[in-house]
């Protein structure tokens, strides 16, 4: 007997659909970061007040503030980013709220200088379903490892 056997088929299906929508949302966000698609990044977050805590990168209270910094810092041809999110742990708290934890492997190349950065860590996210769409309402990234290389001039 499974832990969800008390739920109807419709409830179980709704849970699966919500979890898949959240996975797709996070993948869309990571891909948009790699593609430097600021509009898609913006659309991954809820409007209005949000909590985006990326540690040394900054803490932001709106998606616009984060997107502005992202555009200034990362949207350059010489900046190549690769975000790989894995091992999602998604917990539905209600029909409209969820939380998730993701492992991140990040690789960055500065093609002008040849410098590289590898970063590992975890995202702790909160999600809300607003008008039928799951969106990120809070996110915090905690790094656990980083390796940087700087070629000799």
From TrEMBL:
SUPFAM superfamilies: NTF2-like. It holds the Pfam family SnoaL_4. InterPro entries: NTF2-like_dom_sf, SnoaL-like. Transmembrane segments: none annotated. Residues 15-139 form the SnoaL-like domain. It comes from the Bacteria. This is SnoaL-like domain-containing protein.
């Amino acid at each position: 007997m499974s832990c969800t056997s008390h739920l109807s088929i419709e409830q179980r299906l709704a849970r699966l659909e919500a979890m898949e929508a959240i996975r797709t949302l996070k993948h869309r966000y990571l891909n948009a970061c790699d593609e430097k698609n600021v509009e898609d990044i913006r659309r991954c977050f809820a409007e209005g007040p949000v909590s985006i805590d990326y540690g040394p990168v900054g803490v932001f209270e709106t998606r616009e503030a984060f997107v502005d910094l992202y555009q200034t810092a990362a949207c350059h041809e010489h900046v190549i980013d690769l975000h790989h999110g894995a091992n999602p742990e998604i917990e539905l708290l209600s029909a409209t709220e969820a939380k998730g934890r993701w492992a991140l492997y990040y690789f960055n190349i500065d093609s002008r200088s040849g410098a590289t950065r590898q970063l590992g860590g975890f995202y702790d996210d909160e999600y809300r379903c607003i008008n039928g769409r799951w969106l990120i309402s809070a996110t915090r990234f905690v790094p656990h490892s980083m390796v940087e290389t700087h070629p000799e001039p």
